[in-house]
Amino acid sequence: xxxxxxxxxxxxxxxxxxxxxxxxxxxxxxxxxxxxxxxxxxxxxxxxxxxxxxxxxxxxxxxxxxxxxxxxxxxxxxxxxxxxxxxxxxxxxxxxxxxxxxxxxxxxxxxxxxxxxxxxxxxxxxxxxxxxxxxxxxxxxxxxxxxxxxxxxxxxxxxxxxxxxxxxxxxxxxxxxxxxxxxxxxxxxxxxxxxxxxxxxxxxxxxxxxxxxxxxxxxxxxxxxxxxxxxxxxxxxxxxxxxxxxxxxxxxxxxxxxxxxxxxxxxxxxxxxxxxxxxxxxxxxxxxxxxxxxxxxxxxxxxxxxxxxxxxxxxxxxxxxxxxxxxxxxxxxxxxxxxxxxxxxxxxxxxxxxxxxxxxxxxxxxxxxxxxxxxxxxxxxxxxxxxxxxxxxxxxxxxxxxxxxxxxxxxxxxxxxx
Length: 418
Ligand code: AMP
Ligand code: MG
What we know:
Bound molecules: adenosine monophosphate, magnesium ion
Largest sheet: 7 strands, mixed
Structural class: alpha/beta
Strand order of the largest sheet: 1-19-21-22-18-14-17
């Protein structure tokens, strides 16, 4: 199926077509482009996305290093008694040569002195003041020595572009002295909730009013995705004022996320405003929760009009916004890997592809099993608590049975307590 995206404000019939979630996602990803590269000091690089391949410029270790506390010796020298001719600790190079009949006391990580071909660990020796007795029948050549380049060789591609810089990655880069490092600029995102009924947490709730929760859950989801939230707030209820705020947000953001105002009601202003100021690609996705989902662009800025129901907003975020953020940040969009899991209970299907919040764990036989988080109403945020996966449940005539295999998307940033 192809969607004509060349003209602005296309015919309603085309835009209101129900898209398969995979097709909707492909359209989103087509419009997501990696952001510019910036250099940051290594110390600020944690959890950023590497923008260029990193090639090692050094061998590691740069000298043959001892992996044990012990005595550096000539391996083939079979005699137990050795004269201790020096003490090699880490951080300098002792100017001695180990020969038959001699040894140098050495610590872990210290450079192995000239002439030595093995290190006998201290547990296998009996040290005295000026000599040491080797209590090991046989010493292998190279024993307890990390040769030059054992961990890394100069010229090795150690990290490809797109790598998420976690503790090990940052440690490797630090070991190679690489600073500053090239990363993609963090996506700048604005979050705007709409709805006359919304009040701020902490303010009194009048008749018929509810507190705005989406803005806060979406900001938290954005934080876990490495985005920079440049603005978040409630949009004005009046159309012109809301459109003005939207224009300002679009100008300053790589992504603008709205919640609410995209269904069929008369007051669903976001849908109307997007139609006016943006190029809209789709408005409805064949999924539950979250059928009304608007995706549009203005220049390079991506606009996501998420539905207002709290679970719909978050599920739509996981399926569409998080992958788009990944691409902007220079990362692979497949941030929610698909696995096959065994259902532990019967599950009735719905009329759309349902993304059920679930807890996936490993049973005694090593199988991945899934149990639901309970009632799956799109208003019931409690159905997200402890969830680490979204089960993909397509429509069909009979219920899914306990023991049946289904697909699950493992969430990129699960939270909570299960
Ligand atoms: P809408 O998509 O605007 O029709 O909203 C659908 C449902 O979600 C309604 O029950 C709204 O009251 C609710 N809703 C909309 N926005 C929010 C929000 N920011 N926080 C909590 N609930 C919301
Ligand atoms: Mg609304």
